[in-house]
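Reading a protein record of the kind used here takes only a little practice. Each token is a code from a learned vocabulary of local backbone shapes. With that in mind, consider the following protein and its fold in token form:
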Amino acid sequence: SRTPIRLRYLIPIPGICNNDMLSFNGSCYAVSAFKQNLTEALSTIEGDVELASFASMAEINEFVAANIARESEYPYRRPLNLSQPLRLGMFLGSDGQDQTVSMLKRGNNSAGCGLEPLSTLETFKISNTVVGPCAHLSLDVTDKALVEFGSCDASILALIKFPQVARSDKRIISRFCPEIIPKVLSMEKDAYPLQAGGMLRNQTKQYPEENCA
């Protein structure tokens, strides 16, 4: 007779992230398995999982440091691969004269979804070229963290997170804020208009040197 196939399921222990995830500030972080644009990414996110977002560059640097430390601290786990651009749940918009960075915010139901301003652009180390409102995390040539803003239609991996300890209210949302997608895409169309051929027209915006430090 044939040898039966044995399936092995790895069930997360409450309060403990899986070995291939990073525990940081009460959440488990992971890199998505597939490259997707914004619409695809948000359409496939379920439950308490969300695109990662950070309130400041200081928090991002702490995150990167915690990831690097996995190699040298017990139990010596492999760091997340941050060498590739990773989509974040952060978006570049305009509030009066100041450009603001916002994050996706979700309530107990889809009606509670929205964009919540985090801070002005100066809080983050960014590249000087901005071609869209959707943020992604990358590393520069010296392995320093950098936030870049590009087209929401770009197909890239995503940095996702979920609470390390399950929420007491057992909140479950079937899809992550689907009504937010048109709002973000309209931001891209208004601020970074498309040419007749449908290609995104690169718009270079220069920022004071201190904004990138």
